[in-house]
């Protein structure tokens, strides 16, 4: 029984899916996936994990490119404490993270916002990667803050997500915030300016998430490519605040 006032991530997502079941949660150039489909598919992942003996408090490493599968699998395993793994790491670093995650303290039954929801690993630039243990309260509170700070409107916003969905910025702002609060996300597996422009035009994306190095490249877009950004209301930079698109 959840006695905490903060809902768990599955509880909040189910409420959103119940209210917006037939609305698009994930958008691609040629198709859309609705909240109801994401809810059912993630239930299937959770059931499959349970069938393999995976229970609450177990660690499950998620190794996946930006895609609907990332979002579905993340939701399916989050009750077990997901461990997103950096796709750019070398095999030795990945092995370290998998072993380290297995040695973290056990998690109690998930019945409140204080229970562990995910473990995100740092880049390890000054040593071994460190596992940041995040609770349901941490992540749900973060998404609520994002909604307020960015003035996102449920049912209107479509976030173009080309940043890696396993990083904290894209995981929280680009993935969990849309899924938990009725926005849509359009995932791209890699940053290519032409593909980004085409995806924005095709999906009608209203928000772009990037980092300063990406914006430096985007400043060199042709006039025709800039015209493809007409649906964008504003851009958000993980390292440089919010930048309005002109």
How would you explain this protein's 3D organization?
There is one protein chain. This protein has helices at 9-19, 35-51, 68-77, 91-102, 136-150, 168-181, 193-203, 212-218, 223-227; strands spanning 24-27, 32-34, 60-62, 82-84, 116-121, 131-135, 158-161, 184-187, 207-210, 234-237, 241-243. It is of the alpha/beta class and 246 residues long.
Entry summary:
This protein has helices at residues 9-19, 35-51, 68-77, 91-102, 136-150, 168-181, 193-203, 212-218, 223-227; strands at 24-27, 32-34, 60-62, 82-84, 116-121, 131-135, 158-161, 184-187, 207-210, 234-237, 241-243. The chain contains nine helices and eleven strands. Strand 1 and strand 2 form a beta hairpin.
The spatial strand order of the largest sheet comes to 8-7-9-10-11
Strand content: 15-25%
Order of helices and strands, N to C? HEEHEHEHEEHEHEHEHHEE
C-alpha geometry? globular
Kindly, what is the distance between the CA atoms of the first and last residues, rounded to a whole number of angstroms? 49 Å
What quaternary form is this?
single chain
Quick one: biggest sheet?
5 strands, mixed
Structural class by secondary-structure content: alpha/beta
Number of strands: 11
What's the alpha carbon Rg, rounded to whole Å?
18 Å
Write the layout of secondary structure elements.
Blueprint: H1 9-19, E1 24-27, E2 32-34, H2 35-51, E3 60-62, H3 68-77, E4 82-84, H4 91-102, E5 116-121, E6 131-135, H5 136-150, E7 158-161, H6 168-181, E8 184-187, H7 193-203, E9 207-210, H8 212-218, H9 223-227, E10 234-237, E11 241-243
Parallel strand pairs: 3-4, 7-8, 7-9, 9-10
Antiparallel strand pairs: 1-2, 5-6, 10-11
Helix pairs in contact: 1-2, 2-3, 5-6
């Amino acid at each position: 029984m959840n006695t905490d006032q903060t809902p768990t991530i599955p509880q909040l997502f189910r409420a959103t899916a119940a209210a917006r079941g037939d609305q698009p949660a994930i958008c691609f150039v040629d198709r859309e996936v609705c909240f109801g489909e994401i809810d059912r598919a993630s239930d299937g992942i959770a059931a499959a994990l349970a069938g393999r003996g995976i229970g609450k408090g177990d660690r499950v490493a998620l190794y996946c490119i930006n895609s609907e599968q990332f979002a579905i699998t993340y939701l399916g395993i989050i009750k077990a404490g997901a461990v997103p793994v950096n796709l750019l790491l070398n095999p030795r670093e990945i092995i370290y993270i998998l072993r380290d995650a297995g040695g973290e303290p056990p998690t109690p039954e998930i019945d409140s916002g204080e229970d562990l929801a995910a473990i995100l690993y740092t880049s390890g630039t000054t040593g071994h990667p460190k596992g940041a243990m995040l609770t349901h309260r941490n992540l749900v509170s973060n998404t609520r803050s994002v909604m307020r700070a960015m003035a996102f409107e449920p049912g209107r916003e479509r976030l173009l997500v080309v940043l890696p969905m396993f990083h904290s910025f894209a995981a929280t702002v680009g993935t969990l915030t849309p899924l938990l609060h009725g926005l849509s996300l359009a995932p791209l597996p890699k940053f290519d300016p032409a593909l980004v422009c085409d995806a924005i035009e095709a999906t009608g994306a209203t928000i772009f998430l990037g980092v300063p190095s990406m914006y430096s490249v985007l400043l060199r877009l042709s006039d025709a490519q800039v015209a493809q950004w007409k649906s964008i209301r504003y851009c958000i930079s993980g390292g440089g605040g919010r930048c309005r698109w002109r």
